[in-house]
Design brief:
Layout lengths: L6 E3 L7 E2 L20 E2 H10 L5 H15 L8 H7 L2 H4 L3 H14 L1 H4 L4 E3 L7 E4 H13 L25 H17 L3 H10 L7 E8 L13 E5 L10 H4 L3 E7 L11 H7 L7 H4 L7 E8 L3 E4 L6 E4 L9 H6 L4 E7 L18 H15 L7 E4 L11 H15 L2 E6 L4 H13 L5 H9 L8 H12 L3
Parallel strand pairs: 7-14, 8-12, 8-13, 13-14
Antiparallel strand pairs: 1-4, 2-3, 5-6, 6-9, 9-12, 10-11
Helix pairs in contact: 1-2, 5-7, 14-15, 15-17, 15-18, 16-18
Pfam families: PARG_cat_C (PF05028), PARG_cat_N (PF20811)
Keywords: Hydrolase
GO biological process, one term: ATP generation from poly-ADP-D-ribose
Length: 475
């Protein structure tokens, strides 16, 4: 996979030039046209945004025009977006009379928020801390599909993937559009966002922070095994992202791909990012994850609470503070939790014999431990982490091995591990609880050595049972 370019170019960059495909720019607006007929994109985009929009049909027509000028891969029929804009949920709000006007002003403030017209990719030791206004501006432009295409890695840079009629998972797309428009309705006025941005307050809760983290070697020698708590859930849910659940030092593990971001279905990663629009700009600045890096997004508010995954999802819109009135009051009720993006090994892509479980190959255990420790030590105030069966879905990881790896990594990082298990996974939880009790007083290094001795042919529960027997002396 080729590395991404070092910067993401925004529409107001002097280097962002496009063809005025429909001759929309009035003649009285003077621009510099180059030898290929291209003009700076920003004057054209600004004109398109300033033109009145009063109906869903007008909006979709404008989105199509913007996407065509940006030369993006836009959806020809915009059927899913049309259906959403015709729904009762959308009709209940005065979108074109108030919300759209506010979004337009936020979008037009792009040069004030990002005068250089570009974003650098995340680098180790250099977090990107954006004001709520900056984040809102980027999210609105992702909705507009106003950035020229800049990705060659199958990652998505804007929300146009949710607009076409043909969707692999229409319910999930409807959920993400519900989240996005709930976010739009909840935003304060553009003027208040700009004033807050210029004030540059020192409270970290007023920002969304995107950060790349690298691996600092942590020895298992001399360490002791930490606490584990099992959350026995009836069904998967997203409450672990809420700041009132996490506390100031918590994070929820997002089972990420190397190319992080949102999508069109309802995987765990797509859900966590798609229901928190403030997390979505991460795709503009996130480099591809390596074996020794993870990414955190801190402060992005989840607009929905979701139950279930994949085909079995349902959601409710979370109450948000009123966007009018005192901005300080709004921001106090707006805070979001911390998302920790960790990519597990794709075990179905690992070479191994039929007898040897690829999860148990020494190099794979070390890699997964390294990845999890990188994530769990990513920020200094850490004290707890929430995780499901990381890497055990589409990546085909073994749940028994992964639970031990997560426990070892959390112990090495000094954080409490909270394991979230849905109904069909409860037996795994009970067996892990039994193992934790059996390993009381045992060192992390000793458990790591026992994990290396698991016999061929064992899987999932059998692995936890075998380790318990080995530790107790009966195995």
């Amino acid at each position: 996979m080729e590395a991404r370019p070092p910067t993401f170019v925004l529409p107001n960059s002097p280097s962002c030039r496009v063809l005025d495909r429909f001759s929309d720019l009035p003649e009285n607006i003077s621009v510099d046209e180059d030898e290929t007929g291209r003009i700076p994109f920003w004057p054209l985009l600004r004109h398109l945004l300033q033109e009145p929009i009063s109906t869903a049909t007008h909006l979709i027509d404008r989105l199509q025009t913007i996407a065509a000028n940006a030369e993006g891969c836009h959806a020809d029929d915009y059927g899913s977006l049309k259906s959403f804009l015709a729904s009762d949920l959308f009709a209940a709000n005065d979108f074109f009379g108030s919300t759209w006007l506010n979004l337009r002003e936020i979008a037009l403030d792009l040069p004030l928020y990002f005068p250089e017209g570009q974003l650098g990719l995340l680098e180790l030791g250099h977090p990107l801390c954006l004001s709520r206004g900056q984040v809102a501006c980027l999210v609105v432009h992702q909705f507009l599909s106003s950035a020229v295409p800049q990705r060659q890695d199958d990652g998505y840079q804007d929300f146009s993937i949710w607009y076409a009629s043909r969707q692999r998972h229409p319910t999930a797309v409807n959920m993400y559009l519900s989240s996005l428009f709930a976010y739009f309705e909840s935003l304060p006025e553009a003027k208040a966002l700009i004033e807050d941005h210029k004030a540059a307050p020192g409270d970290p809760g007023r920002y969304v922070t995107y950060e790349l983290h690298g691996y600092d070697e942590v020895s298992l020698e001399g360490g002791s095994l930490g606490a584990v708590h099992i959350d026995y859930l009836d069904d998967y849910n997203t409450e672990s992202h809420l700041p009132e659940v996490q506390g100031p030092g918590g994070a929820v593990v997002v089972s990420a791909n190397k190319v992080i971001g949102f999508g069109q279905t309802a995987t765990q990663e797509e859900i966590f990012v798609g229901i928190a629009p403030e997390a979505c700009p991460a795709v503009l600045v996130a480099p591809h994850l390596t074996d020794k890096t993870t990414i955190t997004v801190s402060g992005a508010r989840a607009m929905l609470t979701v139950t279930g995954q994949r085909r079995g999802i349902s959601w409710v819109v979370r109450p948000s503070p009123a966007p009018t009135g005192d901005f300080n009051s709004w921001i106090q009720g707006w805070r979001g939790g911390r998302l920790l993006f960790m990519d597990a090994l794709e075990m179905d892509m690992v070479d191994a014999s039929d007898k040897i479980l690829p999860d148990l190959l020494p190099e794979n255990i070390d890699r997964e431990l390294q990845k999890a420790i990188t994530g769990f030590t990513a920020y200094p105030e850490r004290n707890a982490v929430w995780s499901g069966l990381w890497g055990c879905g589409a990546f085909c990881g073994d749940a028994g091995v992964k639970l031990v790896v997560l426990w070892l990594a959390a112990s090495a990082a000094g954080v409490k591990l909270n394991v979230m298990l849905s109904t069909e996974q409860h037996e795994m939880g009970r067996q892990l609880e039994a193992l934790v009790k059996e390993c009381e007083g045992m060192s992390t290094q000793s458990l790591r050595e026992v994990l290396s001795d698991v016999p061929e042919g064992l899987r999932k529960l059998e692995i936890l049972e075998w380790i318990s027997g080995r530790v107790s002396g009966s195995g």
